[in-house]
Amino acid sequence: YESNKILIYSILIILVIIFVALSYYFENKKEKKILLSENYVQAKIYIEKDDKIRAKEILKDLILANDSTYSALSFFLMLDQKLINDYNEISDLFNHLLKNNEFDKEIKNLLIFKKALLSSNYIKESELLESLEPLTKNESLWKPHALILLGDYFMAKKEFLKAKDFYKEIFLIKDLQQNFYEEALFKIALIEND
What we know:
- It is a single chain.
- This protein is mostly helical.
- It is 78% helix and 0% strand.
- It has helices at 5-48, 52-64, 68-80, 87-100, 105-119, 125-136, 143-156, 160-169, 178-193.
- Helix 6 runs antiparallel to helix 7 (143-156).
- The radius of gyration is 25 Å and the shape is elongated.
- The termini are far apart.
């Protein structure tokens, strides 16, 4: 004991410091989450009181807080309540959300799909194809949705061959819900009857 006394006390002090630091970190994280939730509720109250300017400010701060839960909830609340209408601002917030938060793979794919859906009226064909590539080139729950979106996009542009190709890709996906196959079949029939 006498020969290792300094080593033992050093290890004990280091363990106490680590314990205190971890306790502080987790308590701080918990308090931040509580503050974020209170701010989210406050923004909803402002929306109910029709004070959209204050609500937008709070929700934007929540998005920029980079908390995967409250950032996403705040962003979609802003969209749902039409607190932002400028496409560039929406696109910037979407990009921030995707870049600065860690989401489960399928949640991230959902966000990619929603961004592409929203952007489809504003961006070029090449940008839309590039934005949906993570969904169309990989197995994802959102792949059939992306293929339908691309088919509809080209159908609206009267590029029927491209539209038909995307609808046909749906038949290559196994074990889909029947309504995807039916929708693709219906839209191919529309193209062929045109």
